[in-house]
Design goal:
The protein is α/β, with parallel strands linked by helices and 272 residues long. The protein has one domain: Alpha-Beta Barrel (TIM Barrel). Helices cover 35% and strands 14% of the residues. It is built from nine helices and eight strands. An eight-stranded parallel beta sheet has the order 1-2-3-4-5-6-7-8. Strand 7, helix 7 and strand 8 (223-225) form a beta-alpha-beta unit. Helix 7 crosses helix 8. The chain is globular, with a radius of gyration of 17 Å. The two termini are 15 Å apart.
């Protein structure tokens, strides 16, 4: 399998304030350990930014230079800056860089995705064959749908917009996410789901229900397997997530499973 969503970092308590005390399991450094992932049937990954800085992007690119396990990088750049094309031209020298992400889930302005400068920045990615990872929360779903409707380039929805599994009520999320069925240029990642459930009492049934919705909306052609490692560790072990994931897609044909496990990620991010 190819993991479409992993993170690596040098843990910095002052910078990484989103890693709270209750997430102590990941308050440390994480680097690519191919043997560990190979043992869990993961042969390669896409490393995704966790910190909003160009230094983070360069850090991930340096790791990719050192490890063949990292086949692609989704970095960060200020998409709202006036000279965005110049910065993208600079980054185009790095073959491993496949796309960019902005942590929209952290933006408090409900109109953020409608901002002209931001939208212009995302649109600029297309000319450089870069993808865009859309990271939003359930309350931002409608804005995210309208954002995707206004664009035609390659976008992937991270973590299925974080369905509110812990609340026990995914009805509104389920209703809204159906809009993506018609947005065929938008893919989605089956990742980050255990951490949206109760970290101690989640059940495989809760997770499978969400994956079933995703299969109905996006189909086998627009979904990618991901772990959100190491964040997944706050709610369970990597092997636990993989077991639930595999069980949830077991009714699909071997060809459909292969698409979600590997091929869709290769195609979306243009991995070698």
């Amino acid at each position: 399998m190819i993991d479409s969503h992993q993170h690596f970092w040098n843990y910095d308590a002052e910078r990484d304030t989103w890693i709270t005390a209750e997430m102590a399991a990941i308050q440390k450094d994480f680097y690519p350990d191919a043997s560990y992932f190979n043992a869990n049937e993961i042969n390669a990954c896409v490393a995704v930014q966790a910190s909003s800085s160009e230094e983070e992007t360069l850090f991930l690119l340096a790791l990719a230079e050192q490890s063949d396990f990292i086949q692609g990088v989704v970095g960060w750049v200020d998409l709202q800056q006036a000279n965005i094309e110049d910065r993208l031209a600079y980054f185009s020298q790095f073959e491993t860089l496949k796309g960019f992400r902005h942590i929209v889930q952290g933006e408090k302005d409900p109109e953020f995705l409608k901002g002209k400068a931001f939208k212009k920045g995302v649109q600029a990615l297309d000319a450089f064959d870069y993808t865009y990872d859309l990271l939003i929360l359930p309350h931002q779903l409608q804005a995210g749908i309208e954002f995707c409707q206004s664009l035609e380039q390659k976008i992937v929805l991270d973590h299925l917009a974080k369905p509110p599994i812990k609340s026990g009520d995914i009805g509104e999320w389920k209703r809204q996410i159906k809009a993506f069925k018609e947005l065929t240029h938008v893919s989605a990642k089956l990742s980050g789901l255990l951490t949206e459930a109760d970290w101690k009492t989640w059940t495989s049934t809760q997770i499978s229900e969400v994956i079933e919705v995703a299969l109905d909306v996006f189909g086998a052609d627009r979904l990618m397997f991901g772990t959100d490692y190491p964040v997944v560790k706050v709610a369970g072990e990597l092997a636990q997530w993989i077991d639930v994931y595999k069980s949830s897609i077991s009714s699909l044909s071997s060809n459909e499973q292969a698409k979600i496990n590997e091929q869709n990620c290769k195609n979306f991010y243009a991995l070698d």
